[in-house]
Amino acid sequence: MLDAAVACFARKGYYGTTTGEIAERAEISQPYVYRLFASKEALFAGAILHVSELISDALTGAEAGAEAGAEAGAEAGADEAGPHRQPEAVMRAIRSAYSTLIEDRDVMRFLMQASCAADEPLVAEALCTCYARQVELVSELLNHDDAAVRHWFGAGMLENVTLILGLADVDEPWARTLSGQRSRSDSGSFAHRESP
Fold first, then answer.
1. Model pTM?
2. Per-residue b or e along 80-117, where b marks 16 or more CB atoms closer than 10 Å to that residue's CB
3. pLDDT tens digits for range 41-57
4. CA atoms of 20 and 112, how far apart (whole Å)
5. In whole angstroms, what is the distance from residue 81 CA to residue 132 CA?
6. Does residue 195 contact residue 180 with C-beta atoms inside 8 Å?
7. What is the pLDDT of residue 193?
8. Residues 6 or more apart from 36 whose CB is under 8 A from it?
9. Cβ atoms within 10 Å, residue 195
10. How far is residue 13 CA from its own chain's centroid?
11. Could you tell me if 180 and 190 are in contact, meaning their C-beta atoms sit under 8 angstroms apart?
């Protein structure tokens, strides 16, 4: 049901979505929605926490893959990596995982809609919990480097905007600046993309 809520709220936001629409998408009755969640606000907050877990799972899985790659390199004769993670490899891995996650436009749009509904107390509380979890996780993954954590969040928010506006397909100087694309005349296509 939370996936249905994310999909519905992503399209019409907190204020424009009804619990009836969510129930219909989830193929359950509206009274059952209220049996699980006391209010639409509680349901929206639950959806935020659900998306927070999706993000955490994606980042943790990517980080595990980056560490496995570093260990394989060490076993193949590379220098000892030591107890700290390789920040560049981890950053690349978690950026890739986040990019893959937000290709599901429902997740990305929902995150944007959640910020727009932050005036609602339960929503604001859930958003703070979500950000606190993500900051803690990303900080741990990036060896508690506060500047790297701020860069991670700034680049992620820019990536959200770039994706939602379809800037990869806009051949204008401002769009290329934000999306990291070369102009069509420079590369013949939009095949190249710079990482933020």
1. 0.80
2. eeeeebbeebbbebbbebbeebbeeebbbbbbebbeeb
3. 999 999 999 999 999 99
4. 22
5. 29
6. yes
7. 47
8. 1, 43
9. 11
10. 17
11. no
Please name the residue that has the structure tokens 């359950």: 28
Q: How far is 48 from 125, CA to CA, in rounded Å?
A: 10
CA distance 87 to 139: 11
pLDDT (average), residues 97-112: 90
Express each pLDDT in 82-93 by its tens digit: 445 577 888 889
Q: Would you give the end-to-end CA distance of the chain in angstroms?
A: 34
Interacting residues of 171 by C-beta distance below 8 A, sequence separation 6+: 181, 183, 184, 190
Is the separation of the CB atoms in 111 and 160 below 8 Å? yes
Nearest CA-CA partner of 43 in 110, 131, 134: 110
DSSP-derived letter for residue 182 is P
